User: Fold this.
Amino acid sequence: MAVRKAATIKQVEQMVREMDATDPPLTVFGVFLDDSPWLSCLGGGLGADTYFVTATARSVHFHQARTRGLGLRPGSLVYSFDRDDAARRMGEVHRQLLWSSFPFVLPGNEDDEPTLMRVRLAWRKEFARFTADLDTAAARR
Assistant:
């Protein structure tokens, strides 16, 4: 897991650097959108929408994850927000034993209804760094 995770992080970071070399990535973590996280844990989340979220000093990017072999690799950029906008779109974080979750308002949702994003335990350290950085951005408002 660690080798795949480290390789995936490097691939996502490289994609973000190619987008804007002046705004390097600070943290990368994976999220999945699935109504049944228990089934996702058993099946590896292959049926769930999965994204890699990258925070930089100025923005937050969502890259679609694509399956390649047994692992997930970063795909195309789907959403991009400035940090303050991302902090406004993100709701309260709920940490649980196997995954954490948070609501996030994605563009195009009817009535600005938030989408529940889930973060697996393997990404908890990176997610904690992300939320601490966003809390700092929200405090500056």
